[in-house]
Amino acid sequence: RDLERHLARALPEHRLRLHHQPITDATGAVRAVEALLRWEHPTRGLLPAGEFIDLAEHSGMVVAFGRWVAHEACAQLARWRARCGAGAPDTVYVNVSARELADPDLGRSLEAAAHRHGLTPADLGVEVLEESFTDPMVLPGLHDLQRRGHPLSIDDFGTGYSSLARLVDLPVRTVKVDKAIVRGITAAPGGDSRSRALLDAVLTVAAGLDVEVVAEGVESAAQAEVLLTAGCHHLQGFHCGRPVPADELEHRLGVAV
Ligand code: G
Ligand code: G
Ligand code: NA
């Protein structure tokens, strides 16, 4: 197919880009960023990951893309540390698909990417979809990342199979409560009590296991307030900052003194 033929040239023709979306704390400070892949398509302009990541996954290109993403994300965090000092994010998170987790070389390549830029695995977090987290095929890969010291984050939490129990077997740093649940909780009037019950359950289990909770898809100050009051530690969403190129985010991080 046409799209696949073009996509195969994205890497050699330097058409991949990274955008960074801030993950903020209660004060609005940027604590972490999520690196999101973009493709500069020859005629259609800049495409978000959602438009080509499935194709990259099915064709296997996602493995090579993931290496590029890790390298680029680490290079960027190292630059922010040099330029923004204490304003730099603590961690950059990259997304990793099931196909990448099945690659026995994933852990080694992520750790090498961190070291190449003077970072450690603690600086390079990995986001995994909830559905991958419950897939026995990818468990060895997840354990390998965890042993190397990469912070793990479970994405879109609350949309897949219940995996609260898995949190006991496999320590993760963070769960990211899915946008749909966030939208439910803050829907007028008074919010949806089932979404709220799920959030409260996640927060209770997370507190007991020392797991951090990030609310995703936060689009308004009112939502931010409800979620922080409920006990979410960090927020992500258009209200906190859209995914943007690195230099755009840099304005917000401050300058090293
Ligand atoms: O940015 P966008 O809304 O298009 O992202 C859609 C989905 O694509 C996100 O949920 C994210 O998990 C996934 N994604 C974004 N960047 C990457 C990447 O570098 N690698 C992989 N495997 N998935 C990504
Ligand atoms: O599944 P994942 O969290 O990786 O998806 C990230 C994607 O979600 C990004 O591409 C981003 O564009 C989108 N996104 C981020 N914040 C918001 C938001 O506040 N609202 C909506 N609708 N989408 C968001
Ligand atoms: Na993600």
Would you spell out the secondary-structure blueprint of this structure?
Elements: H1 2-7, E1 16-24, E2 30-41, E3 45-48, H2 53-59, H3 61-84, E4 91-95, H4 98-101, H5 106-116, E5 124-129, H6 130-133, H7 139-148, E6 152-157, H8 166-169, E7 174-177, H9 179-185, H10 193-209, E8 212-215, H11 221-230, E9 234-235, H12 246-253
Parallel strand pairs: 2-4, 4-5, 5-6, 6-7, 7-8, 8-9
Antiparallel strand pairs: 1-2, 2-3
Helix pairs in contact: 2-3, 3-5, 5-7, 9-10
This protein binds guanosine-5'-monophosphate (2 copies) and sodium ion.
Domain EAL: 1-257
Protein name: Bifunctional diguanylate cyclase/phosphodiesterase
Structural class based on helices, strands and sheet pairing: alpha/beta
Rg: 18 Å
Distance between the termini: 52 Å
CATH superfamily: EAL domain
Uncertain residue segments: none
User: What is the tally of helical segments?
Assistant: 12
The tally of strands reads 9
Q: At CATH's second level, what is the architecture?
A: Alpha-Beta Barrel
Estimate what percentage of residues fall within beta strands: 15-25%
Helix content: 40-55%
CATH class membership: Alpha Beta
The main pleated sheet reads as: 9 strands, mixed
List the ligand species: guanosine-5'-monophosphate, sodium ion
Q: Please, what is the average pLDDT?
A: 94
Number of domains: 1
Protein name: Bifunctional diguanylate cyclase/phosphodiesterase
Domain EAL: 1-257
Organism: Kineococcus mangrovi
